[in-house]
Structure formats: C-alpha cells, structure tokens
Design a protein that fits this description.
Order of helices and strands: EEEEEEEEHEEEEEEEEEE
Number of domains: 2
Distance between the termini: 21 Å
Strand order of the largest sheet: 1-9-4-7
Number of strands: 18
Radius of gyration: 20 Å
Strand content: over 45%
C-alpha cells in the first residue's frame, strides 16, 4: 500500500515537531504474529494508475512494490481485524517538512511468512470516512509572543489529517480568555478559563488554512498559529 499526505500547505514557522503517527485501519485479511512495515518512498507515483509493478501508467518501479529508503523503516505488530495500526513516522515527516521531496509512504506486511493478504481502507473509502488513513503531527510552536518573562509557549497544537481537535495547555495561573481567529481576523470562538489546564477546540467545520490563537490574562498576552489540513 502506498499513501501520501499533502504537506504543501503553508507550514507554521519556528515549530518543533514532537512526533508524527501514521494510522491505518486494518479491515480484514491475514492475521499473524510478525510485523507490518512503513518506509519513506523515494520515487514519484500516480494515484490513479499506481500498481505493485508500476509507479504510473507508463513507468515501472525500480523494484516491484515501490522504491523506498530501507533506512527509514518503522514497524508495528499485526493488529487484530477491525482495529488501527500505528507507525511512528516522525523522522520521515521531519524530512518532508525540511524540504526532502514528499513522495509519501509505503506500507506492507512481512511477506516471508505468507501474511500478505491484508485490506486497509484508502483515502477514497466512502463507507466511513473516519476509517481513512490518518497522519497526526504533534508540534510545539516556538514563535510565541509574550509580554512577561517566563511565560510558557502554547504546547501540543495538533495537525490532524481527518481530525478535528486542537489541544492547548494554558500556562496562566489566574483567569484568562482564549480567542480563536481565522486569517482575516474574524473571531471564531472565545473560551474562558482559570488556572493551568488543558483546553480543546473542535475544528471539524474549518476549511484548510492558517488560524490564530490568542490567550490573554490581564496584561499578559500569548499567541500562536494553527494549521488545519482536512
């Protein structure tokens, strides 16, 4: 299985990627005790015509199955049917964000034991879109503006393909307000809180793009960016 996520939208500056998890839903097929593997693809391919032998309608893979970087291996044990398999692809995504060509990932089972018959919903799966492949990136935004020395930054803003929740840890001790705005400066939501705690914003209805978060408590002011990818 080959899969690619669009990371070409504007990426917030001054971020530190904490982790990136590729999630695939194992729908049915052979169940074993070995592993499935994910690698970084190093050759372009065409979604409409890619096969086990061809990267597109007119071009063969150099090796059947796909051209991948063996040094980027990440693996997980076989999941039970109707459950998720998760692959830590943090280093691969860091490469993509830093400018390495993004040709996506290839995932396949350990075929040496014959366990090669496995079905995963694709990105076009229409029966239940929540079962499509997901790429969840958790990062820390270090481009934070603040007026008081020692104020912490916004932590664990999540870029979630097919996801909808923004998680924020608010560092202020006293009461505060959280403002969520679109790129035009229009207010989408205002939350109120008090004391250090986590808050969540449901972004399910958002279109792709950059959004802004501002946290203010008295004269203290903290702001950051959120990138939404649907």
């Amino acid at each position: 299985m080959v899969i690619k996520f669009d990371l070409t939208s504007e990426i917030p500056q001054n971020i530190t990627i904490k982790n990136a998890i590729l999630s695939l839903f194992f729908q049915e097929g052979t169940v074993g005790v070995e592993f499935t593997f994910a690698y970084k693809l190093i050759k372009e391919w065409d979604e409409s015509s890619v096969t086990w032998l061809n990267s597109d309608a007119n071009t063969l893979w150099d090796s059947a199955g796909g051209n991948f970087d063996i040094h980027t291996e990440t693996k997980t044990t076989y999941a039970a049917e109707m459950s998720w398999e998760n692959y830590d692809v943090t280093e691969i995504v860091k490469d993509f964000v830093s400018g390495t060509p993004n040709n996506g990932f290839i995932v396949f089972p350990d075929i040496k034991d014959g366990n090669d018959g496995r079905i995963y919903p694709s990105s076009e799966y229409s029966a239940e879109d929540s079962l499509r492949p997901k790429l969840t990136i958790t990062y820390e935004n270090t481009a934070i503006n603040y007026s008081n020395k020692g104020i912490e930054g916004i932590k664990n803003i999540v870029i979630n393909k097919n996801g909808s929740i923004i998680k924020l840890f608010i560092p202020f001790e006293n009461s505060y307000h959280i403002g969520f705005y679109n790129a035009s400066g229009n207010t989408l939501e205002i939350l109120n809180g008090r004391g250090k705690q986590w808050h969540s914003i449901n972004s399910e209805s958002l279109s792709n793009g950059i959004y802004f978060i501002r946290i203010f408590s008295g004269k203290k002011n903290l702001s950051g960016k959120y990138l939404h990818i649907e």
